[in-house]
């Protein structure tokens, strides 16, 4: 006699749990999705039209989830805005929203779809997880009614939240996270009244979750890692790449290294908006990553990761980010420094005039030190050492300290800091350090073509970033990106409309 379907599913799930428990590693997947966007409109579409668009995107996501599960993945992350896109006002996004309950209700939408208000998206995501015995992470919209008894209630009588959901291999909703740090264009959503630190346990470690712009702030990003000690962060994002320091793969890999956790980063893919760059990042560097600014194709990435990286024998030691820079005999500060803009931020730069040398550049409380030797110096390329110590941002202002060795766009020094994707100059060695006033520093090395440099650099315990054996490819930038969270200004928009 054949076993019943529920018993068969339970047996498969139990086997998957036992397999995960037997190993100190797990297989993770992320999917970079070329989102099918709705037509731009000033008026809300019908719920049926909204669901039809979301089903088109979920058809693609379901294919990626099935493929990941077939390759042994235990968990898959899909992007922010991956189900419906981002072309919305507050009114026009409403037909795409569902009421997402607190996971404490112990709900499997796939098997009990009518328990709450109509929730076809949650039902389908739950069934994807259940039928493939895999954790599924997705981003969608949540709606919560309110009334005049709540003084913060919006005029239309509801809160709308940019929301991440996680379904376990049985299809149960196990996590719900409302994005706390909205990007300036997300006017269709409300800010949550309080930051949420969302975690959940799995057989392969403790997980936390946040979304896109959240990664740059203390709450929830640092709280999850430093206070709640998650092993892996799930990170749906719709990240627009900004050279030279904030391309997705560059910064997300650096953040995982600087914070000492796994980061599963799934980006949307839209080359006209410079959206690309996903990866499976670890404290030791990228396990797998993808950057494609040429095509409009999605991409599935998988890698085997340490379930509890802090217990790994290769886990990087703690770093004192100012020790080296404050202990060395300072090089003479450059007298011919000049100012240059990286977007709106005014850096202090000094040109590297020879193939080898020692340089110091200071701004504010930060002094940046560089020792370098170029392997070949292209005559039509200029490199600079730069320092920035100040508030970044036009509306939301947060404090950066940055030391950077970077290539200028041309030999005209006024182009230093402008985006550039290609280079010709390789370095035999470089050593970069700074007198940082923070323990939160993220080490970046980016090669020509916006490529990472896994295994080719290291951060020593005294806080200097150095190449191991020279650069295998021409260098765009080597950067130490520091965050002084305690100097951030109060958020001016964290109120409901």
Automatic annotation (TrEMBL):
Active site: 80, 179, 212
Transmembrane intervals: none
Domain CN hydrolase, first and last residues per copy: 31-307
Pfam families: CN_hydrolase (PF00795), Vanin_C (PF19018)
Entries under CDD domains matching the protein: biotinidase_like (cd07567)
InterPro entries listed in its UniProt record: Biotinidase-like_euk, Biotinidase/VNN, C-N_Hydrolase, C-N_Hydrolase_sf, Vanin_C
Keywords: Glycoprotein, Hydrolase, Signal
Position of the signal peptide: 1-22
MF terms (GO), sorted A to Z: pantetheine hydrolase activity
GO aspect biological process, one term: pantothenate metabolic process
Family statement drawn from the similarity comment of this UniProt entry: Belongs to the carbon-nitrogen hydrolase superfamily. BTD/VNN family.
Protein name according to UniProt: CN hydrolase domain-containing protein
Native species: Mycteria americana (Wood stork)
């Amino acid at each position: 006699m054949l076993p019943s379907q529920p018993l068969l599913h339970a047996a498969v799930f139990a086997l998957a749990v036992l397999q995960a428990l037997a190993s100190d590693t797990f297989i993770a997947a992320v999917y970079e999705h070329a989102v099918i966007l709705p037509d731009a409109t000033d008026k809300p579409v019908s719920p049926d039209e909204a669901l039809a668009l979301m089903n088109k995107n979920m058809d693609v996501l379901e294919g990626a989830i099935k493929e990941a599960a077939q390759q042994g993945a235990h968990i898959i992350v899909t992007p922010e805005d991956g189900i419906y896109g981002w072309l919305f006002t507050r009114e026009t996004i409403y037909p795409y929203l569902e009421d997402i309950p607190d996971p404490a209700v112990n709900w499997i939408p796939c098997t009990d779809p009518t328990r709450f208000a109509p929730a076809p998206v949650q039902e389908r995501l739950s069934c994807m997880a259940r039928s493939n015995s895999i954790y599924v992470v997705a981003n969608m919209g949540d709606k919560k009614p309110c009334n005049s008894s709540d003084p913060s209630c919006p005029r239309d009588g509801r809160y709308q939240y940019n929301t991440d959901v996680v379904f376990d291999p049985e299809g149960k909703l196990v996590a719900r996270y409302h994005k706390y740090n909205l990007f300036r264009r997300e006017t269709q959503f409300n800010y949550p009244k309080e930051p949420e630190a969302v975690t959940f346990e799995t057989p392969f470690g403790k997980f936390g979750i946040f979304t896109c712009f959240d990664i740059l702030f203390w709450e929830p990003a640092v709280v999850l890692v430093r206070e709640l000690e998650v092993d892996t962060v799930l990170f749906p994002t719709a990240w627009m790449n900004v050279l030279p320091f904030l391309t997705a793969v560059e910064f997300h890999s650096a953040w995982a290294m600087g914070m000492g956790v796994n980061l599963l980063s799934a980006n949307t893919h839209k080359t006209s908006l410079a959206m690309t760059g996903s990866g499976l990042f670890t404290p030791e560097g990228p396990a797998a990553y993808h950057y494609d600014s040429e095509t409009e194709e999605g991409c599935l990435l998988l890698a085997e990761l340490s379930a509890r990286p802090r217990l790994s024998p290769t886990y990087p030691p703690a770093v004192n980010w100012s020790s080296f820079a404050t202990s060395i005999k300072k090089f003479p500060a450059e007298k011919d420094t000049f100012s240059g803009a990286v977007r709106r931020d005014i850096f202090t730069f000094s040109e590297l005039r020879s193939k080898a040398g020692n340089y110091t550049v200071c701004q504010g409380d930060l002094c940046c030190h560089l020792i370098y030797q170029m392997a070949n110096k292209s005559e039509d390329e200029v490199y600079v050492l730069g320092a920035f110590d100040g508030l970044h941002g036009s509306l939301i202002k947060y404090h950066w300290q940055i030391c950077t060795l970077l290539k200028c766009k041309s030999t005209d020094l006024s182009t230093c800091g402008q985006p550039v994707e290609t280079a010709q100059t390789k370095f035999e060695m470089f050593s970069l350090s700074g007198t940082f006033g923070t323990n939160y520093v993220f080490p970046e090395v980016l090669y020509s073509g916006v490529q990472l440099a896994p295994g080719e650099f290291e951060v020593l315990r005294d806080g200097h970033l150095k190449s191991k054996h020279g650069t295998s490819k021409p260098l765009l930038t080597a950067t130490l990106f520091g965050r002084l969270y305690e100097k951030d200004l109060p958020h001016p928009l964290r109120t409901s409309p």
